[in-house]
Amino acid sequence: MLCLHFGNHILYENADLDHTADVQLHSWGDDLKEAFEQVGMAMFGYMTELDTVEIKEKHEIEAQSEDLDGLLFRFLDELLFLFSAEDFIIPKKLIITNFNTETFYIKCSCYGETFDLSKHPQGTEVKAITYSAMQIVQNPNPNQNQNKVDIFVIIDI
Amino acid sequence: MVIRTYDQELEYIERLTDYSFRIKKGFQPNMKVEGVFYVNKHLEPLMFEELRNSCRSDGIGGFLPGMKQIANVAALDGIVGKSVGLPDIHSGYGFAIGNMAAFDMNNPLSIVSPGGVGFDINCGVRLLRTNLMEKDVKPVQEQLAQSLFDHIPVGVGSKGIIPMNARDLEEALEMGMDWSLREGYVWAEDKEHCEEYGRMLNADPSKVSLRAKKRGLPQLGTLGAGNHYAEIQVVDEIYDKWAASKMGIEETGQVCIMIHSGSRGFGHQVATDALVEMEKAMKRDKIETNDRQLACARIQSPEGQNYLKAMAAAANFAWVNRSSMTFLTRQAFAKQFNTTPDDLDMHVIYDVSHNIAKIENHVIDGKEMKLLVHRKGSTRAFPPHHPLIPVDYQLTGQPVLVGGTMGTCSYILTGTEKALSETFGSTCHGAGRALSRAKSRRNIDYMDILEQMKTKDIAIRVASPKLVMEEAPESYKNVTDVVDTCHKAGISKNCVKLRPIAVIKG
């Protein structure tokens, strides 16, 4: 399994989890908000080289679900849709402006531009988000080797 | 869940023949039927290694080994006969890729599972023939590869060039290849050589989300990325001269074109939407499965019916998609050789679906039953005289198209009686991954792969060259082992071997 790790935009692969199918995204952050934003960027990092993306416009997305896993799924599905259908936006930066962990609602501002084949190198295509082995790990009091929040998601490519 | 050692697990696996193993009930809980899988001596260690590794791991990681997945499918409500693993099996989302299973339509408990079809609904392979020979194409090999690459939109973020608006899409979803024919993109006889004649009649676009349609619209007539490709191939070897001639393949060196693609973002979204819907239906109808990824619904429930109608629309999308690329391929060849596709005899030999669920009649223990047959990474392989195969192939059996991996061979097989009786008329679909994408990236350099192609004199055009190592032949099982296993086991018969001279990829 290929793992894209997105903490502070560091991209590397993890040798521990190997599987023949698909790609696992791993992100982390100081809170859920940051880890969610980062896992979104990890997905886009697989589609193109994010260094080539400029911030030219802003798009808002919303996601709502019944639990936290469901919210993560819906959030990524919204982001995938933002890229895959009319206006074809590739974001460079995500800022979650509203994260309600009681009603499981997210509002997120996506800053980027329209995907342009003459400007953005083609990575690969993400077919779908999956619930497979989805993990949202929260450590309120982590030791120095731990993150406060870790997220693992497998995407189908 | 019972934790067993590898040796304990092996007690449930029994050799049936030189090319098949039985998975006994009890290997996983609630198995209603047994499992079976087909391997030869090269593929066998891969299967067992996967099981051994899973016994060692501490439960981290998303996927179960193929054998466990076959057994979990055997535990689904309404399954009949057995859960079948084909030689190219590798583990996937719920169902393994290379797994087929059939469910009794007359049992009210029977289920349909989007995981048993896959995200890429009606992903399949189409083969076109030409009357060109290798010597005609070799001098313009590079130009032709470039021309195909220029004609067919490939890779992430590419858009279709066939003019389409929302209303056209609705019609295409309902009509499948009849739409392509009406719009002038295909020939009438192309339809004859497609499963279902390129149109599933139960398609209902009103059961498809707006989201799926919005993802689908810009992508109609695009190849995609990942393992999808268009290849110019030449006939390398003919094993069954008579059957090959029925397909219009007369001699080695003849040039063909293979297109491997599916229903693009449209199908992916239909599958995603159905999985979310079915999670709720499973709670309501108290459907229990061994693996949470095996989301399913009763065939007769609203969710089950809606999925089948939306899946059929996605299947139609895929046929229109492959038909649009057929049109573009014919244009590219006609321009290059300054003639018409007609004069180049560019007929569709056949078009197979290897991610699909279909309603078919099969004889089980001497009794005819109406079944919902799921084939995920598995190709239908009906024998001679079967009513569902076209008149041209009534005597040979259905052509089965098996795509290899970048730079390796592909095969045409034919369906057999034994497939009908052993595997519900199903055989393999391709090579099947052996290495993870991560391992491929770590161990293989993309420059080496491009160099390898050059050495083999294969022209290559790739949208994302840095990802070619993920699709390198080393990352896959050997397709020759896969088709040989099917041939030896009798579930399909070798007919033609094709080798690529140009590859176009996402």
Automatic annotation (TrEMBL), chain A:
What Gene Ontology molecular-function terms does this entry list?
metal ion binding
Q: Which Pfam families match?
A: Archease
Q: Which UniProt keywords apply?
A: Calcium, Metal-binding, tRNA processing
* Any Gene Ontology biological process: tRNA splicing, via endonucleolytic cleavage and ligation
Q: Locate the Archease domain: which residues?
A: 17-157
One cellular-component annotation, GO: tRNA-splicing ligase complex
Which superkingdom heads the taxonomic lineage of this protein's source?
A: Eukaryota
Of which family is this protein a member?
Answer: Belongs to the archease family.
Matching entries from PANTHER family are given as:
ARCHEASE, PROTEIN ARCHEASE
Name of the protein described by the UniProt record: CLUMA_CG006884, isoform A
Query: Species name for this entry?
Result: Clunio marinus
TrEMBL record, chain B:
Binding sites annotated in the UniProt record for Mn(2+) 2: C123, H260, H354
What EC number(s) does its UniProt record assign? 6.5.1.8
- Coiled coil regions, renumbered to chain: none
Q: Provide the alphabetized UniProt keywords.
A: GTP-binding, Ligase, Manganese, Metal-binding, Nucleotide-binding, tRNA processing
Query: Where Mn(2+) 1 is bound, by residue?
Result: D120, C123, H228
Tell me which Gene3D superfamilies the record gives. tRNA-splicing ligase RtcB
**Could you tell me what reaction this enzyme catalyses?**
a 3'-end 2',3'-cyclophospho-ribonucleotide-RNA + a 5'-end dephospho-ribonucleoside-RNA + GTP + H2O = a ribonucleotidyl-ribonucleotide-RNA + GMP + diphosphate + H(+); a 3'-end 3'-phospho-ribonucleotide-RNA + a 5'-end dephospho-ribonucleoside-RNA + GTP = a ribonucleotidyl-ribonucleotide-RNA + GMP + diphosphate
Q: Which SUPFAM superfamilies match?
A: Hypothetical protein PH1602
GO biological processes? tRNA splicing, via endonucleolytic cleavage and ligation
- Looking at the UniProt entry, the stretches that span the membrane are none
Q: May I have one GO cellular component term? A: nucleus
Entry note: cofactor: Binds 2 manganese ions per subunit.
Q: Which cofactor does it need?
A: Mn(2+)
Q: Which family does it belong to?
A: Belongs to the RtcB family.
On subunit structure and binding partners, the annotation says: Catalytic component of the tRNA-splicing ligase complex.
What does the function comment of this entry state? Catalytic subunit of the tRNA-splicing ligase complex that acts by directly joining spliced tRNA halves to mature-sized tRNAs by incorporating the precursor-derived splice junction phosphate into the mature tRNA as a canonical 3',5'-phosphodiester. May act as an RNA ligase with broad substrate specificity, and may function toward other RNAs.
* Protein name as catalogued: RNA-splicing ligase RtcB homolog
| Native source organism of the sequence | Clunio marinus
